[in-house]
Design a protein that fits this description.
The protein is of the alpha/beta class. It has two domains: 342 residues, Spore Coat Polysaccharide Biosynthesis Protein SpsA, Chain A (Alpha-Beta Complex), CATH 3.90.550.10; 72 residues, no CATH class. Helices cover 30% and strands 19% of the residues. The chain contains 14 helices and 21 strands. The strands form six sheets. Strands 1, 2, 3, 4, 10, 11, 12, 13, 14 and 19 form a ten-stranded mixed sheet that branches. It has a three-stranded antiparallel sheet with strand order 6-18-15, with helices on one face. Strands 5-9 form a two-stranded antiparallel ribbon. A hairpin with a 5-residue loop joins strand 16 and strand 17. The longest helix has 18 residues. The N and C termini lie far apart (57 Å). The chain binds uridine 5'-triphosphate.
């Protein structure tokens, strides 16, 4: 960085009211000066000051409240065939979806830029060992599903993975060390999402060191602008990809390539489709799919009163039953439209009060016990009201959703590994194999079905039936391709 640039950056921070970011400038060695300037240069000061004015200085909390919930209704959804949905319609959708997959029009997109603070794992969450027996990483699980789906549909499914500056190098290393899990190297695309600086309760940018600014990833909603601002959308165009299967890094049960879901999305000419699962209990901490003013929206549980969350209809079913589990299909051109850029629709930022390490007046690092700062994040579901023909289909929790969020208890490595085991048992039982399970469907032995053998239950049925030498299902067995 030359001197003029360096001075310009510092001047810009002064004009924007953040001169304090450079208060240790004269003490810094050239390397530290370079680091601070590089971080500072990446900050959009107009954006930060606008967010501070809207969310910090006015003391407004993000989210919906009071009359902002007016006119809210549960969103309509396409019922699952096992829950009364039209079987023929689902079969037709699956055929439409399969044609699009075979034609190479579908890509996978995993958002893995988060910090995974609740899990407390040292490393990118995607490298967390998750399967019950062989402890494959989350990334390996997804890679095997994508590889198997590519084989099954005789195509190459491209996989886009969102990282952040904080975990990019370690994620790239995990893929390199594992030789991209057998996927063609050129079919895996890592994209880095933006960081946004955190501010204190007066709206001032926080320093975490004399030469470093507190910055956090800009939320899963930032994935759309990361795709739009990188060359990813152009790459997808060149590849002929039109439909993007979005999923979160912490959910190994996800059916990444789901023909019926893709078929409904295409048949309905939707720009953004979502899967819902019925809430497990009234106060489950999930977002709710709703409509408001003719638009589809997701309302966080924290923005709804308890009585709304518990309300039932005349049949005794939950009124707001549709839980959002962050499984979506995006139209490529829709992402280009909402992903940012001048004059285009953008997702709003939300405010989160967080504990953020900071340098005190004496220049010492403090780790506060209470929230002392504000972090800004975009949420991917805020794209829903911007989409044409947003549709929602019903899915079954056991088929699609068991995230690893917490280190113990609900949505933990233990609950997830057990759900994976239950799914293997269900696949075997559906294929006519006798296997002992407890009252929750959990097998009494530990074993694994590799996703390189079958990506989902329907695939397993075919693959298993085609085996001439079927193995006995015993403790420690791994059913994998080439068995
Ligand atoms: P979560 O909201 O669960 O956040 O992210 P997290 O960072 O993984 O975990 P906690 O809250 O710190 O414990 C849901 C998904 O969105 C991705 C995550 O990687 C995860 O797949 N995400 C989240 C991003 O890609 N970028 C972000 O800025 C935030």
């Amino acid at each position: 960085m030359d001197l003029a640039t360096d001075k310009n950056i510092r001047e810009a921070f002064k004009r924007a009211g953040h001169a304090h970011v450079f208060r240790y400038w004269d003490e810094l060695n050239p390397q530290s000066k370079f680091r601070l300037l590089s971080e500072a240069q990446a900050i959009d000061l107009d954006e930060i000051n606008k967010l501070v004015a809207e969310h910090v200085l006015t003391d407004s909390l993000s989210g919906l409240s009071g009359d902002k919930l007016d006119g809210l209704e549960p969103a309509p959804y396409i019922q699952h065939p096992s829950k009364g949905g039209d079987v023929l319609r689902w079969e037709k959708a699956a055929k439409t979806g399969e044609l699009a997959i075979r034609a190479g029009k579908v890509a996978a997109f995993c958002v893995a830029g988060g910090q995974g603070t609740r899990l407390g794992f040292n490393g990118p969450k995607g490298t967390f060992p998750v399967t019950p027996l062989t402890k494959k990483s989350l990334f390996q699980v997804f890679a095997e599903k994508i590889k198997r789906s590519s084989e099954r549909y005789e195509t190459v499914i491209h996989w886009f993975v969102l990282t952040s500056e904080i975990n990019h190098a370690a994620t790239a290393e995990h893929f390199e060390l594992n030789n991209y899990f057998g996927l063609p190297r050129e079919s895996v695309h890592l994209i880095v999402q933006g960081l946004i600086s955190a501010v204190d309760q007066k709206g001032k940018i926080i320093l975490t060191a004399k030469d470093s600014i507190a910055r956090t990833p800009d939320g899963h909603g930032g994935s759309l602008r990361a795709l739009a601002r990188s060359s990813a959308i152009e790459k997808m165009k060149t590849l002929g990809v039109e439909c993007i299967s979005y999923f979160q890094v912490d959910n190994p049960l996800i059916r990444i390539i789901d023909p019926a879901f893709i078929g409904f999305h295409l048949e309905e000419d939707s720009e953004l489709s979502s899967k819902m699962i019925p809430k497990a209990y009234p106060l489950e901490k999930v977002g709710h799919f709703c409509t408001q003013g003719g638009k589809t929206v997701v309302v966080e549980y924290s923005d709804m009163s308890e009585s709304m969350q518990k309300a039932t209809n005349s049949a005794g079913d939950l009124h707001y039953i549709s839980g959002s589990v962050a499984i979506h299909l995006f139209d490529r051109d829709f992402i280009a439209r909402v992903g940012g850029g001048e004059g285009q629709a953008k997702l709003p930022f939300h405010r989160a009060n967080k504990r953020i390490p900071f340098l005190d007046a004496a220049g010492n690092l403090q780790n506060p016990d209470e929230p002392n700062g504000v972090k800004f994040e975009m949420f991917v579901f805020d794209a829903l009201p911007l989409a044409r023909n947003a549709i929602i289909i019903e899915s079954l929790r056991a088929d699609d959703f068991s995230p690893v969020k917490n280190s113990t208890g609900v949505d933990s490595p233990k609950s997830c590994a057990e759900d994976l085991l239950r799914s293997y048992a269900r696949w075997l039982i559906a294929a006519g194999v006798n296997i002992e399970v407890d009252s929750s469907g959990l097998p009494v032995i530990n074993f694994e079905i590799s996703y390189s053998f079958a990506a989902d239950q329907e695939d397993f049925f075919k693959q298993w039936n085609a085996l001439s030498n079927k193995p006995d299902i015993v403790d420690g067995l791994v059913i994998e391709s080439g068995i």
